[in-house]
Amino acid sequence: MLFLFKDISAQDKLLKTYQSKIAFVSKAPQETIKASTKKLSGVINLTSNNFSFRVSMNTFEGFNNPLQKEHFFENYMEVDQFPESFFTGKIIEPITIAQNQNLRAKGILTIHGLAHEVLVDVIINYDGEKLSFKSSFDVLLSDYDINVPKIVSQKISSIIHVDVSGMFL
User: Fold this and answer.
1) Helix, strand, coil percentages in the chain from 3-state DSSP, rounded to 5
2) Is the pTM of this model over 0.70?
3) Which of 2, 24, 42, 157 has the most neighbouring CB atoms within 10 Å?
4) What is the rounded CA–CA span in Å between residue 129 and residue 58?
5) Is 82 left (phi over 0), alpha (psi -120 to 50) or beta?
6) Could you please report the per-residue DSSP string of 103-155?
């Protein structure tokens, strides 16, 4: 994960997370699909406000049934070909020692092998030692070349809501 930060100096303050949570919800007319994982890993450089997250797509659990999970892995996310997703970027505003800071993160979100620049709101609590974060945003399947066959279009939304939360130590 650290290889994503090119110029790390000795005085940079790096915090890491290994078990943060990412969850998604697809709300379609005929079905709601939910899944999550607590295996989101990441690092933030508090000197530069740069961050990087990674999640293995095959760690998602939940779903409504085993067949739905299998279709997610094989037909939509194609985890054999695209095993991980990434979000790398920068917190735009300064992070201070404070609770409930409403900040923005700008970066490159890579899903299904395709990368797009995104801007997301994030709530950060930082006490000088640990930093907790929480964010919610939507992902358009079409942006990441994830195709939903017409036959199941009433069961899978074209817009997926994502919630992310965790703590850097």
Assistant:
1) 15, 55, 30
2) yes
3) 42
4) 31
5) beta
6) EEEEEEEEETTEEEEEEEEEEEEE-SS-EEEEEEEEEEGGGGT----GGGTTT
What would the pLDDT profile of 67-105 be if each residue is shown by its tens digit? 999 999 999 999 999 999 999 999 999 999 999 999 999
Instruction: Write the pLDDT tens digit of every residue in 110-137.
Output: 999 999 999 999 999 999 999 999 999 9
Contact 5, 50 (CB under 8 A): yes
Q: Which residues contact 97 (CB under 8 A, 6 or more apart)?
A: 126, 127, 128
Rounded to whole angstroms, how far apart are CA atoms 111 and 90? 18
Rounded CA-CA distance 103/80 in Å is: 35
Residues 36, 70: Cα–Cα separation, whole Å: 15
Residue count of the chain, please give it: 169
Q: What's the CA gap between 21 and 41, in Å, rounded?
A: 9
Burial class from Cβ neighbours inside 10 Å (0-12, 13-18, 19+) for residue 169 reads exposed
CB 91 within 8 A of CB 51: yes
Amino acid identity for residue 159 in this structure: I
Placement of tokens 């690092």 in the chain: 43
CA dist 107 and 48 (Å) reads 14
